[in-house]
Design brief:
single chain, 261 residues, Rossmann fold
Length: 261
């Protein structure tokens, strides 16, 4: 049975497009999720939503309990996750307001738990193709049909935060081949793979980061301003994409580690 998980990022949280909405408590071996999971339906599709940064954006990136969030999704029967996140653009062609569906990541975090396995068992999960190609393709096709300005692939670099990058770092990340930057994709995408859940990111470009010296410096106020318009587009995308998810078997689940969870 297909059940869609939505992990809301900055400016998104629990969507207001949910029918029969209920908040429920879920206990996990890793503590409480960021917020009470919201269950219900979107466009007739069963879904679960968790506000990544808590209600009212109270959790800074590295304090998010990523393991509890993904474990709760798995326990509630989620088969596919759409993860919404704000990103800075490292490429001229990815303009503020555009949507991006990354296919690769670079991990620059250092403090986060990135596996469910501790103690008596180790999991070396393959990560050559970290995002679900079928979900990404669906998002790209849907965005095109809706005439939303979007990019079907990109490399996202996840930094520790909560500070923004220096200009030297931003330029270095561009040299490394990163296209967008955020503070939340890792370890979320890794844990989803361990849990055997198809995972794709809907990245909302909010700014040009600080490499783009002709633009104003990145600030929270600048991000929030662009987010307001982006969120409306993401809701349109979700309303159209969710009913089109029609597969349960997927190649990205072949190496799942928590198949018996």
């Amino acid at each position: 049975m297909i059940k869609i998980g939505i992990i809301g990022g900055t400016g998104f949280g629990s969507p207001d497009i949910v029918e029969d909405m209920k908040k429920i408590k879920v206990h996990t071996p890793f503590g409480a999720p960021s917020a009470l999971p919201v269950t219900g339906k979107i466009a007739g599709v069963d879904m679960v939503s968790i506000a990544r940064h808590g209600e009212g954006h109270i959790l800074y990136p590295s304090s998010v309990n990523f393991r509890a969030n993904i474990w709760a999704m798995k326990e509630l029967g989620v088969t596919h996750i759409f993860a919404v996140t704000a990103v800075g653009s490292l490429r001229e062609e990815i303009e503020p307001g555009h949507l991006v569906f990354p296919d690769q990541f670079i991990d620059r975090t250092t403090k986060r738990k990135s596996t469910f396995f501790e103690g008596q068992e180790v999991c070396h999960i393959p990560m050559a193709e970290p995002f679900c190609a079928r979900l990404r393709g669906l998002l790209a096709d849907t965005a095109e049909n809706l005439s939303l300005k979007s990019h079907k692939d990109a490399t996202v670099i996840t930094i520790e935060g909560p500070r923004f990058s220096t200009r030297a770092e931003s330029k270095m990340f561009r040299m490394w081949g990163a296209d967008i930057i955020n503070m939340s994709t890792v370890p979320e995408v890794v844990l989803a793979r361990e849990a055997g859940i198809c995972y794709a990111t809907i990245a909302m470009s909010t700014d040009y980061d600080c490499w783009h010296e002709s633009e104003e410096p990145v600030t929270w106020e600048l991000i929030q301003k662009t987010m307001d318009a982006n969120v409306a587009n993401v809701k349109k995308l979700l309303l159209a994409a969710l009913p089109a998810v029609d597969f349960e078997e997927c190649a990205c689940r072949n190496d799942t580690a928590l198949s018996t969870l």
